[in-house]
Amino acid sequence: MDLLRHLRYFVTVAEERHFGRAAERLHMAQPPLSQQIRRLEAEVGAELFVRTTRRVDLTAAGSAYLERARAILAAVDDAADEARRVAAGAVGRLAIGCVGSATYSLLPDLSRRLAEELPGVDFAFRGEMLVADQVEALRTGAIDLALLRPPVDDASLTLTTLREERLVVAVPVRHRLATRRWLRVADLAGTDLIVHSAGRRSAMYGVVRALFAQAGVDPHIRHEVGETSTLATLVAGGLGVAVVPEPVQALALSGVVYVPLARPVPTVELAVAHRSDRTEAHLLRTLGLVRELVSG
Fold first, then answer.
1. CB 20 within 8 A of CB 33
2. 267-282, pLDDT tens digit by residue?
3. Does position 85 have pLDDT exceeding 80, yes or no?
4. How deeply is 136 buried, as exposed, middle or buried, from its count of CB atoms within 10 A (0-12, 13-18, 19+)?
5. Complete domains list, the chain, with CATH
6. Where is each HTH lysR-type domain found (predicted)?
7. Sign of the alpha-carbon dihedral angle for 22, 23, 26, 32
8. Strand, coil or helix: what is 209?
9. pTM of this structure
10. 8 A C-beta contact, residue 193 and residue 240
């Protein structure tokens, strides 16, 4: 810190070309300032100023030293500013993984809001992720936050429930059930069903199987798919119906209508998760913005 103080003294004298004015600018007496400059010259091993009774001028060594001194002070100031911004959560890198419905219903507004509120944070987004893949990506650090569906059996993660999402039935527009005001699970008996893949450990696959089991209906599964967008596309193509979270309607595909399920309407949770040992300021600020966006 003594060196930085001496550099600031030196630059001020070099800019003012006068010890008296430099001392006033530094809010100190002139003799101590002159002594500090002499000490700096002794440490450098070269005279930096040519002194007269009226002013001081830089020597050739002083001119060279001034250029480096200014660069050092600028770098120190930049480092301090960067440290303050990091501490405030204004800079950093963050990857967010989303389940299918969150990809379409939340990600557009979330990415826009994050760009506005945290322009210094470099965000990356991965959509259409299955929960098992999200959990593994959180563990390895491939992603930092996940919008996913509980339950998640991993003590290393912190989950915060964001909202409950109602389940609806996606039906082809020309299907016999498309004009219904609401549907019971029993109404889907014998109907071709499109579901998320069991082999890829989809959370929604388990939700749909449990829903049919509770209603005592054996689901007639025709297609299993990996992505929500593919599922909705197959419904639009008339290949079957699908039970999906209500936000999937954000896809707005022609050829699909969404029919509510009868009361009591089943729901699924959407939560945000991160590793419990992650406490960086930019991550915590992003968590706050996610919660604010969903609650608003």
1. no
2. 999 999 999 999 888 8
3. no
4. middle
5. 2-87 (1.10.10.10), 92-161+269-295 (3.40.190.10), 165-267 (3.40.190.10)
6. 1-59
7. positive
8. helix
9. 0.69
10. yes
